[in-house]
């Protein structure tokens, strides 16, 4: 299953991370429900990655993702980038990131049916109203067709 929300941690231009330093920081700031991938980049050296990608999995919470991202960023001197917002984010943007994550999770749950993503979010509206509207639309089409057929009979 694809991740429901991601944050990218990148070294400033031209920088890289030591493998040992990265391993120690990742183990110190590990959070359940977060997938961690190192970012090497095109033509990069795997022994000296340029950053870390954090992805919120289905059972993870956005607060844990934010905690891990900002703790790692501070420990490793990285910048946090939110690809969904298409901008760099700081500690001051926590509410904006949280709101956007909730919006993304709700959209994915509504359009893709990924119900597990809705943990902690308000319950969706019941489908009863939608079903009522569908039946009213079908009834209206039938009535319009009968009236049209009745009107055409007079011209024949």
Please provide a written account of the structure:
By secondary structure, the protein is of the alpha+beta class. The protein contains four helices and five strands. It has a five-stranded antiparallel β-sheet with strand order 2-3-1-4-5. The chain is elongated and about 85 Å long. The N and C termini lie far apart (61 Å).
Portion of residues within helices: 40-55%
Give me the number of helical elements.
4
Q: Report the radius of gyration as a whole number of Å.
A: 25 Å
Mean pLDDT: 81
Strand content: 15-25%
The run of helices and strands is EHEEHEEHH
Structural class: alpha+beta
Uncertain parts: none
- What is the general shape? elongated
Widest β-sheet, arrangement of strands = 2-3-1-4-5
> Major sheet, described briefly?
5 strands, antiparallel
Write the layout of secondary structure elements.
Blueprint: E1 5-10, H1 19-28, E2 34-39, E3 51-56, H2 62-76, E4 79-82, E5 87-89, H3 94-112, H4 128-153
Antiparallel strand pairs: 1-3, 1-4, 2-3, 4-5
Gist?
The chain is of the alpha+beta class. The chain has 4 helices and 5 strands. A 5-stranded antiparallel sheet has the order 2-3-1-4-5.
Keywords:
alpha+beta; 5 strands
